[in-house]
Amino acid sequence: MNAPVLVINCGSSSIKYALIDSDPQAPRLAGLAERLGSSDARLKGKNSAGESFTQPLPNADHAEALNAILQRLEGRVPGAVGHRIVHGGEHFTQAALVDDSVIEAIETTAALAPLHNPANLAGIAATRKVFPELPQVAVFDTAFHQTLPPRAYRYALPEALYTEHGIRRYGFHGTSHAFVSQRAGELSSRGAGGWLTAHLGNGCSTAAVWNNQSLDTSMGLTPLEGLVMGTRSGDVDPGLHAHLHRQLGWSVDEIDNVLNKQSGLLGLSGLTNDMREVEDQAMAGHPGAKLALDVFCYRIAKSLAALSCALPTLDGVIFTGGIGENSPIVRREVLALLPHFGFSLDEAANEATIRGKEGKLDSAGHSGPEVWVIPTDEEGRIAMETRHCVETPE
């Protein structure tokens, strides 16, 4: 399939899109329709010349926004549409052509991702109306982690909670972990091997990848488990929920809101969920920001050390995501907490590797596990999986 793929990431009030050609050097048309359903809804993005635009879309719904996006494709007709779907449960181990049975399976996992899957389904419905003749492909955040063994994905809970209700660890950010680990295998002389991947942004997760297969990851049933994130707490004592309910009278929804939207870097610093500001304030001596940075880095290092147990051998660590790609401070602090792993960081290379740069950060002559920064390309990975699914349907 030589035609470009239109990648859609649909939220409850937004549509992020990218038109991705089969030629990786071709310019991408990308943008975001946001605040849908409101009077100040708008579409913003860049054209093929790299020029920015903003188009008001007052009170537009998803279908109207998609029609506006269609007008911004500069006459380039997509050959397929690839949809980011957050949760595929155990139904999907790879991308799938959308039909009624796939939609039904996505609906059954909605309880596991109530903020995401219904919005993703709305995007599929709207896109099928606008592009009724195009193949639609669902690409799942969870699919890459379906290679986890039971010892990694099972919680120590009664069997029925797993067999009847699907309570297990699923993992997320799969397209990112898949992309950067495969790219490391291409760049490094060590090949596919064993890689620890750290996707660090407003949402954060780590994974252990062996020969391009995920063997363990930090996120679990939901994206709340694992690392400290922008506004999410990551791991807490499971008894915390009962404690807050008994001592403070908080409801389940109140507790969920605090852990997902008021915690993480924001909760620890008391300032912001933006790591750039956290770093600036920490360097200026703000105690909350310093604590947030310390906890953030310590929890990443702790997670990477734990995940190394899943790998037969360790070939290196990969940093990606907005923070992983752009924060020399975080990379340096995380690696400093793992002295026994034999990493050797070149400080000059670390400081120079920001703003989308790809590079190896090892000291000259170092022969131990490698350190890489690899900018993630989740849209590109979704386009690749979409193209493969259309070209080689089961």
Automatic annotation (TrEMBL):
Record InterPro entries: Ac/propionate_kinase, Aliphatic_acid_kin_short-chain, Aliphatic_acid_kinase_CS, ATPase_NBD
Q: Which cofactor does it need?
A: Mg(2+); Mn(2+)
EC number(s) per entry: 2.7.2.1
What would be an example GO MF term here?
kinase activity
Substrates-to-products reaction catalysed: acetate + ATP = acetyl phosphate + ADP
Q: Give the positions of the site Transition state stabilizer.
A: H173, R232
Q: Which residues form the active site?
A: D141 (proton donor/acceptor)
Give the binding site residues for Mg(2+). Answer: N9, E378
Highest taxon, organism lineage: Bacteria
Keyword annotations: ATP-binding, Cytoplasm, Kinase, Magnesium, Metal-binding, Nucleotide-binding, Transferase
Binding of substrate, residues: R84
Pathway where this protein functions: Metabolic intermediate biosynthesis; acetyl-CoA biosynthesis; acetyl-CoA from acetate: step 1/2
User: Cofactor stoichiometry and binding?
Assistant: Mg(2+). Can also accept Mn(2+).
Tell me the compartments it is located in: Cytoplasm
Q: What does this protein do?
A: Catalyzes the formation of acetyl phosphate from acetate and ATP. Can also catalyze the reverse reaction.
Family label: Belongs to the acetokinase family.
Q: How does it assemble?
A: Homodimer.
Q: What is this protein called?
A: Acetate kinase
